[in-house]
Structures
1.
Amino acid sequence: MKKFYFLALSCAALLGFASCNIADDDIKDLQILNGTFTITGSYPDYKLIQDNGTIIYPSAANVSEITDKQGFGDHKRAQFYVNYYPQNVTEENGTVVIRDAELKQGVYFVEKKLLTEAEATEAGLLKEDSIYSVKTVESWLAYGYLNSMFTAYYSKDNGNVINPTVNLYAKCTGDNAVTLTLLYNRRKTIGGDFEGTFPYSFDLTNFDIPGNDSITVTLEMKDRNPSCIKVARKDFYFHAK
């Protein structure tokens, strides 16, 4: 069996894996899913919670191989392709649980904390000339993280990749409500622009929202209409352990 390993690439921390040979008799039963997960637990015994609630337990041997015995470190959010067999799937208290799964190709999200307006102002992120529009963006909230998948542009300067940066700040808060604003920024460099995909996750779990009811989150983005979502406090303040 070939060794699995993580390989960092430009324009996002892509995880590259060598493929494993699978016997023909096993292929017909093999299932594959692709999802976004919150990583909990510690090496080598991890529990991955998919954004739809499905729980994945990758085998300790698989984790050891694909991470070269290093584990996932401080990373808490990632997308993975997962191989599993139907006999390892159960339903527990209404939740789908998959054990002895094997993680394949994947990507870490760039993880950042939610900024206050004062922090964003001090960093110069609110200046109009530092904000530019991305091509497309898909955003969703899950387990205490505001996630955004951007199709955006990056630059190369003398062969060095300079990625766009993205930040999130809390524009205003109220009882059981918060308005968040995404800022897209880029350093101006010599050379042409290239299109790429950039996944970001912003940790909301330590940001205090007054009240004791579910929280209405309004998300603002440049050149796009605001969107709203209501989320339970236990999900907004979810802490991955």
2.
Amino acid sequence: MIETKVVTYKNERLMQFGIKQEQKNGWSVLSTDTTDRGRSGLKTVGLAVIFLPLALLGKRKAGFMITYQRPAGIYSEEKTHPRWVNILTYAVLTIIILMMIASTCS
């Protein structure tokens, strides 16, 4: 049995990073497509105020849709936490250690 999943990225830098992360978890790239993300509302309104025909130029940049594939059931997914969770964890541990040091000194 083969697992398949589709992930959409907003830009090429995020796409390249995502591909590297997924390859570490055993996924291989099956296909790559660009996606049309529609028009940006803020750009469209701003251009309409300046010059109405230019409003059609307010299109968003294309995204990327990657389809991954791997054999089922032989890999365990790494659970990655957002960066702020790691920072918060280290801050709490630092405070606990400092409190322990302060209590032994007094």
3.
Amino acid sequence: MDLWQRILATVADEFSDLPDAETFTRVVVRLVLAALLGALVGLERELAGKPAGLRTHMLVALGAALFVLIPLQAGIELGDLSRVIQGLLAGVGFLCAGAILKGDAEDEVHGLTTAASLWMTTAIGLGVGLGRDTTAALSTVLVLGILRLEGPLKRWIEQRRRGRLVATADRDEGH
């Protein structure tokens, strides 16, 4: 075997982690689905004008899927995979913490919902990477529902709170 044949054989061996059409298809579907589900959550955040938007959520979901998919491909035991997941969640915790800002007032905190959406996007990506596609898709629908309901629920709570304040003020004034 001459030098060029050895080089070509080495390159072919280097790309042999997807040995057949089924494995290739499974990996493509999982990675694309993770990116798409992350995109749905990210698009909602983007449209809401939040700093972590489409690209961030896509990358988080895709990264989470890849972090569990590669060890599964390598034949890692399920018990050992739990350590990979723990490390991933700890790392994402730092990313989420960076999204949270404390304001000057004691009760002024920004970014909690964005941090939570990144955390959930990680879980969605993990689910897809582990082959739990339907569970991940259902979770995405629930996340989108929660994020879409946030504004209307906040307004309803504020109206109720203001109504109580007015009623209390009226009662205090003797009305």
